[in-house]
Amino acid sequence: MLTRVGTTKRWSDAVIFNNTIYLVEVPSTLSDSLRDQSIELLNLVEKALVQYGSDKKHMISVTIYLRDISQIDIFNEVWDSWIPFGCAPVRACVEAKLAHSDYQVEVQVVAAQIDKNKHAVPFMT
To answer: Could you give the domains of the chain?
Structure first.
């Protein structure tokens, strides 16, 4: 069963298929600080994963999009303090022109759903 969560005409907040969660997070606080946006973003990822029956220890793959790749050390410092030791997912970090001019960072996450009792409200067509 394919479950879409928070679906609009253009995107879904998350899609769950075969006990795998796919989600993207963007910052809601549009400050100039990559550090602040990274902290907020990773907290949003953690909250979403728990909501959909997973956690940050069960992430499979993460793609990080930075507006300025020269600031990767700032992101990595936040990431390294957030990710549990021994649980790092496959990860790519690339520079990208992001959809909103104030975004410093955006992440795309794939994670294993470990709690099958957590059910998101599916989008029905």
So the answer is: 2-112 (3.30.1330.40)
The C-alpha atoms of residue 105 and residue 72 are separated, in whole angstroms, by: 10
- Answer yes or no: are the C-beta atoms of 41 and 108 closer than 8 Å: no
Task: Provide the strand spans (E) within 2-121.
Answer: 2-5, 14-17, 20-25, 59-66, 90-95, 105-112
Q: What angle do CA 1, 112, 29 make, to 5 degrees?
A: 100
Cα of first residue to Cα of last residue in the chain, in angstroms, is 13
Beta strand ranges found along the chain (DSSP E): 2-5, 14-17, 20-25, 59-66, 90-95, 105-112
pLDDT tens sequence for the chain (125 residues): 899 999 999 999 999 999 999 999 999 988 779 999 999 999 999 999 999 999 999 999 999 999 999 999 999 999 999 999 999 999 999 999 999 999 999 999 999 999 766 655 444 43
In angstroms, rounded to a whole number, what is the distance separating the alpha carbons of residues 54 and 21?
Answer: 8
